[in-house]
Amino acid sequence: MDERERALAAAHSAATDFLATLPERPVWPRADLAEMLERVGGPLDEEGRPADEVVRELAERADPGLVAIPGARFFGFVIGATLPAPLGADWLVSAWDQNSGSSTLTPATVALERTAGEWILDLLGLPATASVGFVTGAQVSNFVCLAAARAAVLRRRGWDLARQGLYGAPRVRLVVGAHRHGSVDRAARFLGIGQDDLVVAAADGEGRTLPEALTGALGECGDDPVVVCLQAGEVHTGAFDPFPDLVPLAQAAGAWVHIDGAFGAWAAASPALAYLTIGMDAADSWTTDAHKTLNVPYDCGMAIVRDPADSIAVFRTGGDYLMYSSLDPWDVTPELSRRARGVPVWAALRSLGRRGVAELVERLHLNALALERGLREIPGVTIVNEVDYTQVMFRLDDDAATRALGAAILEEGTAAVTGAEWAGHAVLRCAMSSWSTEESDIRRTVEAFGRLVPLTRGS
Ligand SMILES: *Cc1c(COP(=O)(O)O)cnc(C)c1O
Predict the structure, then answer these.
(1) What is the pTM of this model?
(2) Mind listing the pLDDT tens digit for each residue in 335-359?
(3) Listed residues 320, 347, 374: the one ending a domain
(4) Mean per-residue pLDDT for 206-214?
(5) Ligand 1 pocket test: which of 139, 140, 433 has the largest number of ligand atoms within 8 Å of its C-beta?
(6) Are residues 10 and 153 in the same domain?
């Protein structure tokens, strides 16, 4: 074995050892940042070390600070685990080391990504001619899509953003729902769209933007060019904006419609849940993640733009030294050098097939319903949302007890959930996004809460 083979063998063995601990290891890490810095920090040695020794040492030192995200009972935030096929594919992407911005340089990985993009459009019921840029996640996807939107709505006003820049341009207004994801505001900030340029439309009790509120918000924009940002899957409730009402309203007002469907867009891939996404296909751009619902390794999201000319207008690189053909990754994403992060998506979809994707999304939903049923049986627990999709939110009678319960479950280790605020109360939020969660995992989680609730209510 040469040094490279020994390093890979060490990584394989450490990776399988780690994965084998998932069923029983505490979901939340047992070491905090300070302890981890003790374990991995210190001055850099003068001399190097053999590769396999470094890999073994790395795995051993990192272990107590690792989170069981690829396991079956990590329900915090909205974070997916990793299916076997994309995990293997991701290792190959590293071994191949293809700098995948251009089909001229790396035809294999660009072809795999292009195919994965076509499959995604098909599964999500989006226009087959849209551009798909594989980016690091929904945050960057929101940025990419809103960048294309900003340039397009300005172009319709006769303003060429690429030539004339933003100074002196018509004011672009961004209409957002009251329960948009924070990454939308952040993307707006990257784009020179400030908080004062946002117009917020009110939401119903589940966080869905109301049609009357959208009409009002559009009215507030006057003659300014407008981008409307809607949502498929609110992070707390999992609720979907009513697209058949909202999209035509926005388009009648001349707005560009963007939909953030980081995890929600995947409902379209399930015949049983697709009703939630009706009307989504009429938008102009879409954000979704592969590292959440599709369970590929971090990081991977998709920026989808109906008319590829709108993404090219922002991202295509000028300059003679760069070769490009039809629609290359660097025409539709901000990076030049980039990892072929769409290749694990190809592998995930190939391993699941259309039926497997539908079953995956439906299983996440059924797990959410099972968790809801179990939690309802525990005295003192109130379910806060309508469980239409993958999110379950609950609380105890008082906020301090709810927060104590959140801390207690992390400490106890059976599952991880996220604390949040909803309608003026502390809540705990559970997101079903791991392919490996089974009925027994839901049962173990409910049992753990059943033990902890009386203790935290009494405290
Ligand atoms: C997770 C999430 C994001 C941010 O996605 P990243 O993949 O973390 O960049 C944006 N919008 C929604 C609705 C999300 O759930």
Answers:
(1) 0.97
(2) 999 999 999 999 999 999 999 999 9
(3) 347
(4) 98
(5) 139
(6) no
